[in-house]
Structures are given as structure tokens and as C-alpha cells.
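Protocol check, entry for the methods section draft. Step 1: assemble the input record (protein sequence plus ligand SMILES). Step 2: submit for complex structure prediction. Step 3: store the C-alpha cells unaltered in the notebook. Ligand used here: nicotinamide-adenine-dinucleotide. Step 1 record:
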Amino acid sequence: MKTYRIGVIGLGQRIGHVLSAMQEMGWSLELSAYADPAPVGAPVLRQAGIPLGRACADPDQLFARGPYDLVMVGSPNHLHFAHVNRALDAGFPVFAEKPIVRTETETLALAKRLAAGGTPPLFIGLVMRSMPIVKAVIARVDAGELGEIVSIDATEHLPPEHGGYLARNWRRKAAWGGSYLLDKVCHDFDIFGRIAGARPAKVASFGGRRIFTPEGASRPRRYDTGEEAFVQRDAGWMGANDPFHSDMDVTDHQTAMLQYDNQVRLTFHANSCVSLPERRWYVAGTEGTLIADLVRNKLMVRRTLDRGKPQRIEYGGLTADAHNGADQAMALDLKATMEKGAPFPVSPFDSMAAGLTVMAVDRAMALGEMLDCAPMWAAYDEACSAPAPVKA
Ligand SMILES: NC(=O)c1ccc[n+]([C@@H]2O[C@H](COP(=O)([O-])OP(=O)(O)OC[C@H]3O[C@@H](n4cnc5c(N)ncnc54)[C@H](O)[C@@H]3O)[C@@H](O)[C@H]2O)c1
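Step 3, stored output:
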């Protein structure tokens, strides 16, 4: 069996978990080297029994110590553009965490580069695409079980310890994370675009900070069991101690409305501190309706004129990290892609479209206006139609 030689840029908790899942799913791997000033993911790897490999001062030193079968990028979001580009320059296959990049300008530049061709393969960790429940939703939509999709209603609501982590971790700052929605739910907007089968034409959004504010600091900070509610996890790189007195500048709750080019309408509601966590997609079509409960990993479907009980499918495999086996499923997808050339479930272009969608939502919120997305898509399409580089 081939042993994959892996180099990592940004060895945080996420890459720690992805590597652990890869090993668990039968990858023979050697973490050969990493570039990270203070690898937050080290304890995760120690627990999985994966040796850390050689520490490198920066990505250039890491590349010089190659070759690698895979370079994995798990740095904070504002570094993705530079790290992904340098890894592509080095010529090794790349796995990069989502969001693929953090701004519209970076998206256009990367789109231009990828459209020109000649780059090594680039896989993006939009891990929900690998989940069996999500694959089933997409398959049912594609098979026409719901008829034409008319409207979608979706949520992502987090428990206090998760919201408290976001308010202390680097994700609290737009300069590092992009935004609350870009970091947290670009996954969901990727799937919504896939279900709708179109791009958003108009978007509006309202959101703000009403939870993790100095005024909120006087509210109780422990669960009724005595456990800390907001500071259960290490806040990591550039972490802040107190979620209520950090310098957070992204939203802690946000709503959005989108109308896609083909008249599919969507509402979205996210809150980062609730007592009833939920990640739910309600998809209504002309012939049927589907509810995907991503927290409980359950699907419910019924045809519009059926009077019998809805079909209920439980996908099981619930895990404490709420990923419910997604990392393991992605590890298998990546293995099948690298070993057998099977298509990876999501492309960098899907990832860029999802990112741009969320960026448009955030821009609409900042402007306080409904945003016409046509100019943004025109700029993206122009970048994607870049001519191939002229060979000397
Ligand atoms: N797909 C998913 O479900 C999922 C889940 C969590 C995180 N993520 C993504 O993974 C990425 C990492 O998130 P995380 O939760 O692991 O964060 P983290 O804070 O645990 O890790 C980030 C790591 O980057 C390192 N770093 C900072 N500056 C660096 C630099 N200049 N060069 C190299 N390394 C540097 C930090 O020291 C840290 O070890 C983010 O893009 C995030 O959006 C994806």
C-alpha cells in the first residue's frame, strides 16, 4: 500500500481532525513536515498517534523539503489565498480548507489562475458534500423526487460553547475569518446553490452583535450543571480570553433572503448562542417536500399529495463534534479521488461560487440594501473565461 507523504501549512485543530479521520479510514500516511508557528492541532494528532514530522520555518522551507503527495492548507482564512497559491506554484496536489479564499478580489484572482489551467489538483474541504445524508438530498433533488424546487428555508444555530469559541478565536475578526457566515456556513450555501441549480440573483440580509457584547457579560456564564458555558475550548491562534470583552467585529446572529436566477427563494437564519441547536434545510418542491436535520442526521421526505406517514431515514453515526462522520466520509472520497481518479464531490469553482454568494449576503447587510448580484457574477465569469497561458 502506498504511504502518502503529506506536508501541512497551518496545522490547526481542523487539519488534526482531517488527518486523524484519514488514518482511521485506512490511509497510510506520513506527516512529513509542517509550517505553523504554534500548531494548535498537535494534541489532536498526538491522540491519533500521528507523529508531527519536521517543523519548517515557513511554506518555502516546507516545499524545499518535498516532494509531497499532498499539501494540506489549514491556516486561518485570510492566509488561504497566499498559501494555496504558493502550494500550487510548488506543483504538489493541494487540499485546502474552506472557505477557499476570504474576499471577492482574491476569488477573482484565483478563478483566473485556475481557469487558465496547468495547476495541480486542488481539493476543498467543503466536507458536508461528502456526508451520506447530503449526497442523498442531492440525489433525490436530481432524480426529480421533489419536482421543481420552489423555496427553501434553512437554519444553523449553535450552542453557547460553540458561539463562545467563535467569539474568542480568530474567526471573531473579519480581517482573519471573513465573516461569521463565510466561515461557518459557506458549506450550506454551497449545497443551496446545488439544490436550486442556479446562482442567487438578489440578496438581502440583516444581522449584528447582540449576544457577545460587553452588555452581555453580566449574564450567567455557567450551565445549570456548573460547567463553563462559553470557554470550554482553547481559543488558539490570536485567541481572546473573554467572549464578551473580545474585539469581535463580525456578527453573532444573522438572517438572509435570497432569490436565485430561476426564481427559487430561500430564507436563512443563523444564531451563535441558542439552547436548541439546529442545522436544518427545509426544501419545498412542486412534487414533494424534504427536511434534512443535519444535527440529528435524519431525513424526512413526503410527496405533496401523499397522506401516509413521511419517509424517515436515520443516517446515525452521531458524534460529539456535530460532524456526524463527515470527516471520515471525506477521507474516503479523497482516497478514491487520489487512488482511482474518482471525481471529488466538490470543485474549487463550486467553492468560489459558494464563497461569493456569502460575500454578497454580507455586502447586502453592510449596505442595508437588497443587492443585485449580476455585476459580481459577470466579473466572476470574466475571470473564469481567462485564456490559457501562451506556451513559449
Ligand atoms: N470543513 C470544516 O468543517 C471546518 C471546520 C473547522 C475549520 N475549518 C477551516 O479550517 C481552517 C483552520 O481552522 P481551525 O479550526 O483548524 O483553526 P485553528 O485556529 O485550530 O488552526 C489554525 C492554525 O493556523 C496556524 N497559523 C497561523 N498563522 C499561520 C501562518 N502564517 N502560517 C502557518 N500557519 C499559521 C495557527 O498557529 C493554528 O495552528 C479554517 O480555514 C477554517 O475555516 C473547516
